[in-house]
Amino acid sequence: MSLLRRRIAAMDTFAPSPILALRETAVATATTSSASATSTIDPYTHSLNGVNQPVNMLFKEMLWWTLGIFALIILSVRIIEVAWAKLRHVSAMSVPADGQTYWKRSQWSWMPGLKKHLIYAPLWNKRHNREIKLSNAISMGTLPSRFHSILLFLYLSSNLIYCFFLNWANENYYSFCAELRGRSGTLAAVNMVPLIILAGRNNPLIALLKVSFDTYNLIHRWAGRMVVLEAIIHTVAWLIVQVADGGWESVDSRLLTESFVASGMCGTLALFVLLVLSLGPVRHAFYETFLNVHIILAVIIFACTWVHCATSNIGVLPQLPWVVAIFLLWLADRLARMFRLVYYNWSARGFTEAHVSPMPGEACRVTMHLPRHVDVKPGTHAYLRFKEVNPWESHPFSVAWIEHFPSFDGKEGRDEVTERDIRRGTTSVSFVIGAHTGFTRALFNKASATGLSTVTLRAAMEGPYAGHHSLDSYGHAVLFAGSTGITHQLSYLKPLIEGFNAGTIATRRVTLVWIIRDYEALEWIRPWVDEVLRMPRRKEILKIQLFITRPKNPKEIQSASNTVQMFPGRPNVMTILKKEVDEQVGAMAVTVCGPGALADDVREAVRAVQDEQSVVDFCEESFTW
């Protein structure tokens, strides 16, 4: 806003003396009377006088078309990627490891450089997902990647160009303010459409473009900041003219008597409050509170914007249909979430129950017993809600283990389980939840307070979401996990080994690297790992490396075999990955889920091994919002 004030103040240099005199007179008489009927001020306090509506509509079209074309470009790239992965999958799944050499090497000489310097690159040197903390209690959030930064720069700069593409030669200061008011208000309404689309968990673009919700949420936050800035400019531009015309008394009068003005001011104030609450230090410190207040303020903003566009003295503003569309998009996402919540958690068999077990290392193992069959892919996450622990809150957690229980319809004598039996049965979905603050701490305390090994709670699961990254077409997969990030990686192990035994996937080698603080953390996933280790031909495909950073007893660090190894201290990610690349089988996928510092180390290592002799793709699972 300071830039706007300086630029408007600079107009004094160019304004002719009659205009300056008029402004001085208006200020001098503002507290005693309104502008006369022949004033050059009064017409620009209301209606669309001075507003360049054709240009406003042009920039609306340009902004929406730009976003649409970019989405089509991403869709085209994704279609090519899926087709290429399918071709690799089909051609490699029936050949041995040494027969995948073709897919090991890059088919395009420019691709490794593009990955290294743009697609996988952090904004600056290395830091991306490691939080910027001013203290243990104050977090500024994370930095966007280089690619995301370029997209955000183009989006934000285009908005600023559209906003200030005005008639700077206009000698009437108040007409200029009216044009700025119309432009900024139009752009604020225009940007609310992608703002709401990107905010939804059921956003169809997530599955269509295979872009993570984390990325959409990043763009959502910056789009929201742009909406707030444009709304403030819109309000200030109106205030400048209104105060010059009738003083602050006229502002108070219109706020009290005109719903059009009152709704606009109320909406701008709600947006500003939402902006303050969404800033990193506030959002991270009071996340649960922010979520609830965010929804309340969003409803207020919708209502105020609707009233503002519907009660103008010229009738309905042209932006009203957009506001209706925005509300319908938001309502559709809420209804979709409600439908999924009811459908997955209730059936004739009853309601979902959660078995919560407190674990060593301040974590809970949670198994959601759903009353119907749910198809859950590896690499997905779901939002959990517990009736007895902050029931108004839901939080995302990575799925660790899926188990389906077939229904035989009273024909238990049959040995063969059909697909129909599985579909008619039930599903259990398991998670590991570390106890930090707020909701997770309350859940851990609830489970621990009973003194029982397992407590049963009424709960609900919303999801699953994501799961767009399939590893089936890669000959080699390297999975890095830190602490409870093991849940994301564990969900891939059983399907990959089953696919290897069935000959339906290209994967011939899987390396799991898990970094934990102490030996006790192994209890989090022990029953699932035991099942994986008992699977046929597991030793032919899977190698596990456990790094214990703070072992209580050196005798705990004992490797069970060459395929399950334990080491003290932290791993050298670069050394591990370079060794895997030296022994690479076909195309390689490297995934990471864990603390931001680990994710940044893995990202750096993946960038370092990019060359024409090896195809190494990178996938990061994070919840940075």
Can you offer a commentary on this structure?
With 625 residues, the protein is an alpha/beta fold. Helices cover 51% and strands 15% of the residues. The protein has three domains: 2-46 and 55-66 and 148-340, no CATH class; 349-409 and 420-466, Elongation Factor Tu (Ef-tu), domain 3 (Beta Barrel), CATH 2.40.30; 476-621, 3-Layer(aba) Sandwich (Rossmann fold). It has helices at 2-14, 17-29, 53-92, 101-104, 111-119, 146-163, 173-199, 204-209, 213-257, 259-278, 280-285, 287-310, 320-345, 419-423, 438-449, 486-502, 526-533, 538-541, 573-582, 596-608, and strands at residues 346-347, 350-351, 353-359, 363-370, 380-386, 395-398, 401-405, 426-434, 455-466, 476-482, 509-516, 542-548, 564-568, 588-593, 616-621. It has a seven-stranded antiparallel beta sheet. The protein has a six-stranded parallel beta sheet with strand order 13-12-11-10-14-15, with helices on both faces. A two-stranded antiparallel sheet has the order 1-2. Strand 3 (353-359) and strand 4 form a beta hairpin. Helix 6 packs parallel to helix 9 and helix 7 runs parallel beside helix 13. The two termini are 27 Å apart. Residues 1-38 have low confidence and may be disordered.
**SS field, number of helical segments:** 20
Shape annotation: globular
Beta-strand fraction estimate: 15-25%
- The count of β-strands is 15
**What composes the largest sheet?**
7 strands, antiparallel
* Radius of gyration, whole Å: 29 Å
- Summed over residues and divided by their number, the pLDDT gives a mean of 88
Number of domains: 3
**Structural class assignment:** alpha/beta
Order of strands across the biggest sheet?
6-5-9-3-4-8-7
- Report how far the terminal alpha carbons are from each other: 27 Å
Ranges with pLDDT <50 over ≥5 residues? Answer: 1-38
Main location: membrane
Organism: Truncatella angustata
Keywords: Electron transport, Ion transport, Membrane, Oxidoreductase, Transmembrane, Transmembrane helix, Transport
GO molecular function, one term: ferric-chelate reductase activity
